[in-house]
Design a protein that fits this description.
Helix content: 55-70%
Number of helices: 2
Number of domains: 1
Largest sheet: none
Radius of gyration: 19 Å
Strand content: under 5%
């Protein structure tokens, strides 16, 4: 993948720092995957519980609120938007 994106490894970084950065990248991918799976689980659970009632709007707001709560619990008050996320 480094060849495709024409990325060169920094020569001033040691092996330990390179491995740490790669580990953090993989951990972030798994963290985002966990958030997506847990959000899908909560949304499915809410839809299954509220389906007989027919309150689709209520399901939408509950799923959105639970996703926002999961994000707030995971990231906490230290979360900051990057310049790409502010657009």
């Amino acid at each position: 993948m480094n060849t495709i994106w024409e990325v060169r490894l920094r020569p001033d970084l040691g092996w330990g720092e390179t491995i740490r950065r790669r580990f953090l990248s993989v951990a972030m991918v798994f963290g985002i995957g966990f958030l997506l799976l847990s959000s899908m689980f909560v949304s499915t659970l809410l839809a299954a519980l509220l389906f007989p009632i027919g309150k689709n709007v209520l399901v939408w707001y509950l799923a959105l609120g639970s996703a926002a709560l999961l994000r707030a619990l995971l990231l906490g008050p230290r979360a900051r938007l990057t310049s790409a996320a502010r657009l």
